[in-house]
Amino acid sequence: MRVLVVSEGDAVAATVEAALRDRPDVHVMTGRPHVLRRLLDEGDPTVVVLAATAARAASVLGTVVGRLHVPPVVLLVDEPATAWTPASRRAGVHAVLGLDAGAEQIGAAIAAAAAGLLTLHPDALRARVALPRSAAVAEDRALTARQREILEMMAAGLSNRVIAKRLGISAYTVKFHVAAILQALGARTRTEAVTLGVRHGLLSL
Description:
Largest sheet: 6 strands, parallel
Number of helices: 10
Strand order of the largest sheet: 2-1-3-4-5-6
Helix content: 40-55%
CATH architecture of the largest domain: 3-Layer(aba) Sandwich
Number of strands: 6
Oligomer: single chain
Distance between the termini: 31 Å
CATH topology of the largest domain: Rossmann fold
Order of helices and strands: EHEHEHEHEHEHHHHH
Radius of gyration: 18 Å
Strand content: 5-15%
Shape: elongated
Number of domains: 2
Structural class: alpha/beta
């Protein structure tokens, strides 16, 4: 089994290696998040362990959406409650753990993911706290139906060009809608907009 550990530092890789030290049949590879797609092509891993903030993980996973084969992914994130989304599942996520997960937990999640099973942090399944009715109404009015549709596609990691093609509109129009979405949600980036969309119930978990 080939396990690819993707993180900005070496601490997570060391933890994974410690978790799998008794498995001589396991080979651990490491790499950085911004080259995940290339690492998948070159290493052909059995399981991927991705450690990052929830927002960063969503952005990185968006780069592999649509790939013919995506191995099961074990996510180690700072906010597990926001990481278990339709977009992450489409990107192959089989496990969501906290960044503070220990070697035993990570090892078990890797084994489960390789077997096609799910491992989720309790917060990943926690019910959303309902917004007050006034706030919910405000959120509903903040985005049009078209903008909510585009937000869903943003969550799936699709580019403006791809979104435009799917919706049959110009890339300029998509850019306009994306700018409106960021303004309505008070977000600075697409990734932050997706995170806020999940928190406010604009994207289904």
